[in-house]
Amino acid sequence: MSTCSISALGERLDFTSRKHNFSQPSSRLSGPTVPILQMAYSERTPPPRHAQTGSSLCPAVSLLLVLFTCNVRYAACGASNIVLILSDDQDVELGGMVSFFFICLFFVEEVSALCILQTPMKKTKLLIGDAGATFSNAYTATALGCPSRSSILTGNYPHNHAVRNDSLAGNCSSPLWQKGPETLALPVYLSKRKYRTFFAGKYLEQYGTKEAGEFAHVPPGWDLWHALVGDTKYYNYSLSVNGKEEKHGDSYEKDYFTDLILNRSLEFLDKRSLGQPFFMMLSPPAAHAPWTAAPQYQKEFSDVKAPRDGSFNKPGKDKHWLLRQPPNPMAGSSMDFLDDAYRKRWQTLLSVDDMVEKLVKKLEDLKELNNTYIFYASDNGFHAGQFSLPIDKRQLYEFDIRVPLMVRGPGIAPKQIVKAPVLNIDLAPTILDISGSDLPIMDGWSPMAAPNLGPSRSCFLVEHTGEGSPVPDPACPKLGCGLSHCLPNCVCEDSYNNTYACVRTLVGINLQYCEFSDNESFVEVYNLTSDLSQLVNIVKKVDPALLQAMNQHLIKLQSCAGSSCHDNGINGFPQRLYLPSYRSLFYRV
Q1: Any coiled-coil ranges, and where (predicted)?
Q2: In 350-410, at which residue ranges do the beta strands (DSSP E only) sit?
Q3: Cβ atoms of residues 61 and 457 within 8 Å
């Protein structure tokens, strides 16, 4: 194989963070490298998994503390049922959950207008969000499906479960994953609590492939298993049904995947064992490509276009290498492509909205609704034209890392908006805590375990390992090698040097600090209080002392495991930033 010299290669998968010297501000930073990310699960020595104790942990996320009237767990409240609905690539920032698009009909004679809110998820918002709590600051620790789903299942950051991307080489459903993190995943612990466990939908992108054990592999802990083989499809797919292959065609009534997931879940509920708690995880394909809507919804939202505000069609000025490549302004064909994708995404979500409605109705008919917690979440966000990138995820910005999260259930008061930061790694420990399980050490946090420790984590980690091709894309030979996921007009959404780690803070200051593993040692810093769209990289304007401290905190977070990931800075940086004497650190005078 020929050697690539293109900048996209960066340092490829050898992700190291630099201990920067910020005494002299620069856009190209240098310094000694220290390895802080152990990629191979087999080579990583995990810390002892002792029971969590409140005295050893810093506050993490408030999540359900403010919601539950019953703060004591299983023994006092009884075993509750739990449902987790996990959509695919569903954004928050662009209106994929609750939109701000309005259709207005103007009445000239009366000088008035009738405006109707457009959104694909009206029923879901009503039946889960309005009936319980909506988390306005929910994030994924990585903006990509397989690593994010692995984090949801294990409660751990990607650097600890070692799933780096959606490829088998990136440990997505690999034998290494199956022998390691999968044996310590959420359903294993729920099974020990005598929960009846049910899965239907998309599991992990490489699940069921030949190298991953094909359809015969059923992950431990699941009693009933209906999992998609491979990546997202709506028709013409295969399922692993309890380890046996089941092929499906293109009949809407028999095969449309979102509806099949619903129907299998309703059948499970009808046949459930009375008195035994259950856990259901439903993972519909929407709103992931190829965006095949149900027949009755294929003409919906014909007037909707991707939002044109914020960073839409803006150049990637002062951003990392990959963001500096797309042509700006975008070509008309790219605009048409992303608008079409945006509409189709919404159309596919209408079937998920129907799923939520029918599932809630079934639980109500069975008199189980009042004893069931229903979580609604997504694996990652999405972009459609932001910084001239047509469509995808994988980036560090808010549109890709913010996700929807809502929950309803026993003791949760309706119509609550929770602003405390919460991560996808917090779902597993919280669900286990609801079940009454003795919590294993996880990077994520259940607030029910130690309610006296405080209201919120002050910062958290976002990480991504870029994926590239060792040979040029045949459709875009001039780009060279090292890139991947290249779209029309040869705009590529990922590359080897799109490997980064970020510290995101929301308490005290609204800040994001990111370092790239590339040959530029690139750093991006954003003040989201004044720049919510992350248009201006302020790395050259920030006091070097702040950058140095953020660098040190990032190093700690990238090597954290278990309770050390719960550090919110109370005993050091960045908590000191919140004190008046350190306010001057933010900008150099």
Answers
A1: none
A2: 372-378, 383-384, 391-392, 405-408
A3: yes
